[in-house]
Write a structure and sequence with these properties.
- The chain is mainly α.
- It has one domain.
- It has six helices and four strands.
- The strands form two sheets. A two-stranded parallel sheet has the order 1-2. A two-stranded antiparallel sheet has the order 3-4.
- Helix 2 packs antiparallel against helix 3.
- The termini are far apart.
- The C terminus is likely disordered.
Length: 227
C-alpha cells in the first residue's frame, strides 16, 4: 500500500489549496498557494491520481478472483477511504467552477485564451487527434467536466468489482460461521459502500448540471441540445 500512501499525501496537498479557495471572499484568480500560483491548480493531475486509484482497485479485485479468495477488508477500506477523498476533491473542484461560472460574463467565456476566466485551474490540453488546439474557456471546461464524468465511471466499475469480492468474503464467512468480529467488519464495509454510492450519485448529478450550464453558452453545443 506504499503507492496508496503516496497518493493520499498528494491528495492532501491538493485539497489544502482547494480549501483555501473555498474560504476566500474574493473571486477566483490565480491560486494563493505558492505551489500552484504559476501554473494553476492541476486538474490533469487529479485525473492521473484517479486513474492510479482505479488501477489499485482493479488489482485488489483481480487478485482476489485469481486466488478464488476475497479481497482483504482492511486493504479494501483503505482504498475506499482514498476513493472518498477523491470524490470530495471532485466535488470541491467543480463546486468552485460552478460558482465562478455564475459570477462570469458569458461573453468572456467565449473568448479564446481569455485571461480572466478559469485562471485558477490547470486544465487538460484540448487536442484534435494528436494536435493541440486553442479553445474557449467554456469549451475547455465542458470537456474537462466530461472527462471527469468518464473517470468517475471508471472508478465506479472498479469499485463495483471490489464490492463483489467483499460480498463473496462475507458469504464465505457466513457459511464458515466466523466470529462476531468478522461479521462486524462486513457490516461496516457494507455501510461504507452505501455511503460511497450516495456520494457518487450526488457528484454525477452535479457534473451533469455543470455540463448543461456550460453547454448553454457554447453555441454549437447549445444547438445540439435544442435539436
Amino acid at each position: 500500500m506504499a503507492e496508496l500512501n503516496e497518493i493520499n499525501v498528494r491528495l492532501l496537498e491538493l485539497s489544502t489549496a482547494l480549501s483555501e479557495a473555498q474560504e476566500a471572499t474574493q473571486p477566483l484568480g490565480r491560486p494563493s498557494n505558492e505551489r500552484f500560483r504559476d501554473n494553476g491548480w492541476p486538474i490533469d493531475e487529479m485525473f492521473n491520481l484517479t486513474q492510479r486509484v482505479a488501477e489499485i482497485l482493479d488489482q485488489l479485485a483481480g487478485t482476489a478472483t485469481e486466488r478464488r479468495a476475497s479481497a482483504d477488508p482492511g486493504n479494501s477500506m483503505f482504498v475506499l477511504s482514498t476513493y472518498v477523498r477523491l470524490l470530495d476533491m471532485y466535488q470541491k473542484v467543480f463546486g468552485l467552477v460552478q460558482t465562478e461560472l455564475a459570477q462570469t460574463d458569458p461573453d468572456e467565456m467565449l473568448v479564446i485564451a481569455s485571461e480572466g476566466v478559469f485562471q485558477f485551474w490547470k486544465l487538460p490540453n484540448v487536442n484534435i487527434g494528436s494536435i493541440p488546439v486553442n479553445s474557449t474557456p467554456s469549451l475547455a471546461m465542458f470537456l474537462t467536466a466530461q472527462l471527469a464524468d468518464n473517470f468517475l465511471g471508471r472508478l465506479r466499475k472498479a469499485t463495483a468489482a471490489l464490492d463483489a469480492s467483499l460480498r463473496n468474503r462475507k458469504d464465505a464467512t457466513v457459511n464458515g460461521q466466523a466470529g462476531a468480529g468478522t461479521s462486524a467488519t462486513s457490516l461496516f464495509v457494507d455501510v461504507s459502500y452505501e455511503m460511497v454510492k450516495n456520494r457518487e450519485e450526488t457528484l454525477t448529478k452535479h457534473l451533469a448540471e455543470l455540463r448543461k450550464e456550460l453547454a448553454s453558452i457554447i453555441p454549437m453545443l447549445d444547438c445540439d441540445q435544442e435539436e
